[in-house]
TrEMBL record:
Entry's EC annotation: 2.7.1.23
Protein's recorded name: NAD kinase
A GO BP entry: NAD+ metabolic process
Catalytic activity, reaction form: NAD(+) + ATP = ADP + NADP(+) + H(+)
UniProt record similarity statement: Belongs to the NAD kinase family.
Residues noted as binding NAD(+) in the record, renumbered to the chain: D45, G46, N121, E122, K147, D149, A184
Function: Involved in the regulation of the intracellular balance of NAD and NADP, and is a key enzyme in the biosynthesis of NADP. Catalyzes specifically the phosphorylation on 2'-hydroxyl of the adenosine moiety of NAD to yield NADP.
Record keywords, A-Z: ATP-binding, Cytoplasm, Kinase, NAD, NADP, Nucleotide-binding, Transferase
Gene3D superfamilies, A to Z: Probable inorganic polyphosphate/atp-NAD kinase, domain 1, Probable inorganic polyphosphate/atp-NAD kinase, domain 2
Taxonomic lineage from the root: Bacteria, Bacillati, Bacillota, Bacilli, Lactobacillales
Catalytic-site annotation from UniProt: D45
Compartments where located: Cytoplasm
GO CC terms: cytoplasm
GO molecular function, one term: metal ion binding
């Protein structure tokens, strides 16, 4: 089995990386940073997002697994204290995995050029100087004329991040859906939005046509990445055909992750 290791720079992560490298060498595993079968992320969710985008062209055969060395994350199942147990599972890997939906973003430029991007968590459209204006379509039908700070489109696994902070719903990752949440929308007689998060079906898509007057000041974030949308006239969001695969060494219920991250009940409090 070929293993790649992606780590952040803190001391705890470096220590985990060294121990993992030693265990892999003893097991005659191949450390292959270019074409791995499994990518081990050491750090937090941010480190795993970096790993995901580094290997996004290999999603058809790569599985990811995370060891967190800081705050508990949704993508990092293992703690430093569980490293020996994790290594044992890794050395006895059975090939099991669980997959989650991804977000595909298609950018159409004013010159007709099209680019396709992918996100694990979410994409946002924002204008930091003044408000952003754009027409929002669901499939081919115009839904609303939006004016405000921006829009967030999230995957189910990304629903616990920025989307939740904006008042969006937490969505189970078995649902093939995308969620759109508004960022400080402006509602008056001219501009009228739904003023509520919306979930779209798996065979639907969202298209945003930006107002040419404000186009130069609009930026897109794609997970941890950010860039200007200057020269882009249409942005389309849909569920990607590809999916992300995580190595499954033990089952962790999604709602247990949510409870642990946001509520933190003790074992006594969980008993009915």
């Amino acid at each position: 089995m070929r293993i790649a290791i992606v780590s952040n720079d803190n001391e705890s992560s470096k220590d985990v990386q060294a121990r993992l490298l030693s265990a892999c060498k003893q097991a005659d595993f191949s450390i292959d940073q270019d074409h791995p079968d499994i990518v081990v992320s050491i750090g937090g969710d941010g480190t795993l997002l970096e790993a995901f985008h580094h290997y996004e062209k290999q999603l058809d055969h790569v599985r990811f697994v995370g060891v967190h060395t800081g705050h508990l994350g949704f993508y990092t199942d293992w703690t430093v204290d569980e490293l020996d147990q994790f290594i044992d599972f890794l050395l006895n890997d059975s090939g099991e995995s669980v997959s989650y939906p991804l977000l595909e973003v298609a950018l159409e430029k004013v010159d007709g050029e099209k680019n396709h991007l992918i996100a694990l968590n979410e994409a946002t459209l924002r204008r930091f100087e003044g408000t952003m204006t754009g027409e929002v379509f669901i499939k081919e039908e115009k839904f609303e004329l939006f004016k405000g700070d921006g829009l967030c489109v999230s995957t189910p696994t990304g629903s616990t991040g920025l989307n939740k902070s904006l008042g969006g719903a937490v969505v189970h990752p078995r649902l093939d859906t995308l969620q759109v949440t508004e960022i400080a929308s402006l509602n008056n007689r001219v501009y009228r939005t739904i003023s509520s998060p919306i979930l779209i079906a798996g065979d639907e898509w969202i298209r945003v046509k930006l107002d040419d007057e404000f186009l130069a000041g609009v930026f897109m974030t794609l997970d941890h990445l950010s860039f200007s949308l200057k020269g882009v006239k249409n942005i389309e969001f849909r569920i990607a055909k590809s999916r992300v695969h995580f190595a499954r060494y033990r089952h962790m219920h999604f709602w247990d992750r949510v409870e642990n991250a946001f509520i933190g009940l003790g074992d006594r409090d969980k008993k009915g």
